[in-house]
Design goal:
Chain lengths: 126, 138
């Protein structure tokens, strides 16, 4: 059996990782989702602020408030990670880029987990 | 760009040699506002976390947010959000192949800038006068 030689660009870690289209589509799908979610969220968020702590908790604990907030934060975090990835790739090179990309992913995940924890805690009554 | 960059040619987007035009300005603003909104998401998650930790921590964070610098920051986030969202619609239309003509691209750039300022002022006006957020301490 003949083994195909590994292309030089693969050995040196250069060339397309074939993830570009996925990135492009995800960035746009999350953008379209936010066109609906952000106005919905902002409207309810501002209204809830006038009702003080108890009102905010009641809104975040309601099925609709929870759904809008959870979906909004989730989609935002994905969009944020992808967008910041592009910025990092544009301005940082070498090992620093790899570290920055790792931190970017970890940070986005950490933010999402904190939001998830907060919303679950609020849903179960604080 | 790597540390051992030695190519003397100017870097994209050639900000030092190009006459500034509005599509270039909104492109740069889109990136800047997107990066700023990174902070906006952090504040939003901090707000959710503070709310989950009880009335004291919520009140403490709200005190920070309604202070002078806090309000200035929230105003900047609102402006960044409105601009990024409206200019994002332009890019979605571009992705669909619409609005690339020079005149149209320039007009929609200005539209994104002007509408984002109007929308931000509208949101803050509504928050101040109709919702009375200034008077709410909690």
């Amino acid at each position: 059996m003949r083994v195909e030689p590994t292309p030089y660009k693969r050995v040196t870690g250069l060339g397309s990782a074939h993830h570009g289209v996925g990135h492009y589509i995800k960035q746009r799908v999350t953008a379209i989702a936010m066109l609906v979610l952000i106005p919905l969220f902002l409207f309810q968020f501002l209204a809830s602020l006038t009702t003080g702590y108890d009102g905010v908790m009641a809104w975040l604990g309601s099925p609709f408030g929870l759904a809008v907030t959870f979906l909004n934060v989730s989609v935002m975090v994905v969009h944020m990670r992808l967008g910041f990835q592009t910025v990092i790739e544009d301005y940082i090179g070498g090992m620093a880029r790899k570290i920055a990309l790792l931190l970017n992913g970890f940070f986005a995940l950490a933010l999402w987990l904190i939001a998830l924890y907060a919303l679950i805690k609020i849903s179960f009554g604080g | 760009m790597s540390a051992n960059w030695s190519d003397p040619r100017p870097l994209s987007p050639f900000t030092t040699v190009w006459r500034w035009h509005v599509t270039m300005v909104v492109s740069i603003l889109h990136r800047a506002s997107g990066a700023a909104l990174f902070g906006g998401v952090v504040v939003l998650v901090a707000w959710l976390f503070a709310a989950s930790q009880g009335p004291q921590s919520y009140a403490k964070l709200m005190e920070l947010l309604v202070s002078g610098p806090g309000r200035a920051l929230l105003f900047a986030f609102t402006l960044a959000l409105c601009f990024h969202l409206l200019n994002g619609v332009r890019y979605l239309l571009w992705s669909g192949g619409h609005g690339f003509e020079k005149g149209m691209a320039n007009r929609t750039s200005w539209l994104a800038i002007i509408l984002s300022v109007i929308l931000t002022l509208a949101i803050w006006t509504a928050a101040y006068w109709h919702l009375g957020l200034l008077t709410v301490g909690g």
